[in-house]
């Protein structure tokens, strides 16, 4: 008698316990960012050639598609929608170090390669941190921000400080592995699983999740622990919306709301859902996201279209 593998058994259990929305998964391609590396990008057109563009930045341990696939279709009815895999995630750039600064620069490089102009940048969890940094480092390309399940710092409690401090120490000891050819090849090999065309969206989501190694996630979490944007949030000068996940046990809702109040004119769009709402509670999250993005897009008309030199705002 043929017995299923342990991996298949775990996957079958996840399929029956976790709701994954069945929607069309857009096709993507590898895009070369000059001098930086290649990453996997999807570029879904909007209803017209002059539709405004939104760039979606994913959560830690995920990929661009895995975080955002339930929202891409609804967003594309009004916007051109772009996703990318961040460094060390999925088919993202495999560099010697993981840096949120580099991730933000990658977004700016992609905007230039695609010939985009003044995009709305939306991020979920880690992606919302990178979105903040995109404005900080490249304000001239950002015409609006949508920050979902976000924070301005991760060490706001004793438990968070202890967790991130220990993670940083642990990851410091393995940082040299990022220079290892074996580590890079291993990450690339895992990412090749995405080239499969699964028969079911659960299979696809499972393969997408497995494309980022736990080691890479640890490095990203350590980097997130060093993030602190509170001092410069009041300087954000583009329309901003904050989608607050009210049942979030990872990033406290009160901290999400406090962040929104530090950004001049930011609107708050709450949703009764947890930290994985982007997929597991997408029926609640996507409407709140659409409201937030539509609000930011409408408010762009109230802001002067100006170009600001980025050098004066760099950290």
Describe the structure.
The protein is built from 11 helices and 8 strands. By secondary structure, it is an alpha/beta fold. The chain has an 8-stranded mixed β-sheet, sandwiched between helices. Strand 1 and strand 2 form a beta hairpin. The N terminus and C terminus are likely disordered.
How would you summarize what this structure contains?
Helix content is 42%, strand content 15%. It contains eleven helices and eight strands. Strand 3, helix 2 (64-76) and strand 4 (80-84) form a beta-alpha-beta unit.
Topology:
Elements: H1 6-17, E1 28-33, E2 37-44, E3 53-57, H2 64-76, E4 80-84, H3 100-113, E5 119-124, H4 126-137, E6 142-148, H5 158-174, H6 181-191, H7 201-210, H8 214-224, E7 240-245, H9 253-262, E8 267-271, H10 277-280, H11 282-299
Helix pairs in contact: 2-11, 3-4, 5-8
Could you name the key traits of this structure?
315 residues, 11 helices, disordered C terminus
- Taking all Cα atoms into account, the compactness measure Rg is 19 Å
* Total number of strands: 8
Structural class: alpha/beta
Strand proportion, as a percent range, falls in: 15-25%
Which outline best applies? globular
Strand order of the largest sheet: 1-2-4-3-5-6-7-8
- Which residues form runs of ≥5 with pLDDT under 50? 1-16, 158-199, 306-315
